[in-house]
Amino acid sequence: MPERWRVETVTGGQRRKRLVIASLAATALAAVTLLAARADDLAKYQVGGEKSGYLFSAQETRDMQDDDFNNPGFLWVERGEAAWNKVEGAAGKSCAACHGDVKSMRSVATSYPKVDTRLGKLLDLEQRINNCRTEHMQAPALAWESDALLGLTALVKLQSRGMPVKVAIEGPAKSYWERGKAFYYTRRGQLGLACSNCHEDNEGKMLRADPLSQGQSNGFPTYRLAWQKLGSIQRRFQECNSQVRAEPYPLGADEYVALELFVASRGQGLPIETPSVRR
Q1: Catalytic residue among 95, 195, 198, 240
Q2: Distances in Å between the alpha carbon of 14 and those of 6, 64, 100, 128?
Q3: 3-state SS assignment for residue 224
Q4: Does the annotation mark 240 as catalytic?
Q5: What is the pTM of this model?
């Protein structure tokens, strides 16, 4: 029989071997594709040298944040939705009475804290919400760290989720920014530590079981697993002050609002993540 007429016989063992090789190749290709997709997803959490706390979180914490159904911060968002439409105060108004659908708040949170030129002072988002309540609704201000204020703050910030932080630090904001910067780099407490000692000098190093992040604020209010509830950036400031054995300032203190502005400016361009999840 001429050589060109011969047909190669493939045994059962050879066929199985080829199928295994093909299966492994397909699995490897899928894994590479998945890793590439994850790398693309993670890239948005870094702008230049600025990194969101998301990048310092464990994968299971990231997964919890990414799934709106499993993200416990949305329990406060739901409270905020109810409060948005609730009529309160002597003026007989709700948030919706002036602003309509909460979607009208898109991009608003990216610029806070910001200077209110009429009031002549720097306000963070919580203070802006309470100012609207007391002046326009003629309703009582909501208590700091109350579920009601956290819910409204989270709801408003959620409308800007994915949009870059863009706070003003020049003009009327400059003196506040400089005050916040001075706070950030001042050693305090019995341990004699500044914010920068942890979040700049030792970024990425382990503190007990957790890596030290850059201390960015783009995810606040955040659901912290250690707190088992949503909390504001100023609650975190108080906690940090206590950890270095310094006397915390009251929530809403001018010192903390200025610090909030400076911290936000360190993360210019990072995406709003509220409600984020952190350990």
Answers
A1: 240
A2: 18, 45, 69, 72
A3: strand
A4: yes
A5: 0.85
